[in-house]
Amino acid sequence: MAALRDRHANALLEISEENGALEADLEQAVLVRDTLDSDDVQAFLSHPHISNSAKLEFFHSAFSGQISQQLMGFLQLMVRKNRERLIVPVLTEFIHRVNRRLGRLEAKVVSAKPLSEKQMDSIRAVLSKKIGMDIEINTVVDPDVLGGFYILVGGRIFDRTVRSALNDLRQRLKIGG
Question: In whole angstroms, what is the distance from residue 104 CA to residue 153 CA?
């Protein structure tokens, strides 16, 4: 599946570059990915008894006038080839590749409660300095995080949660005691 994901992401990237539409296609891909990345939508798209025409109608009503013809064509192709489950992974890979091409990196910040704009700017500045790229931040609120936050960026995890700090303290106490 990774090979198919990469092949489709590369094709989307090539088309976007040929059309000089990297920025616009990036924004549209984020919109589509975020819209389709829910259990309910995925269940609808992958349900074997829902017709392709119903799935295509869903895409048309959800995205008509908001996304480019090539992105709509990609969605239609994925439905015709019964690859609906690959749409979100392909778009995620496409977004990652476009961001890299534009000198940006996408970071996911998971926290117990919503972060203020000032906190996000601070995190963005520290990450940009550490990694040497512009950082696009997506935030997720997860009540299972006791406090603090963790960041997923470029295959790395920066963990500043209370749970992590308590675990570190526990390990130091074991070693010292």
Answer: 11
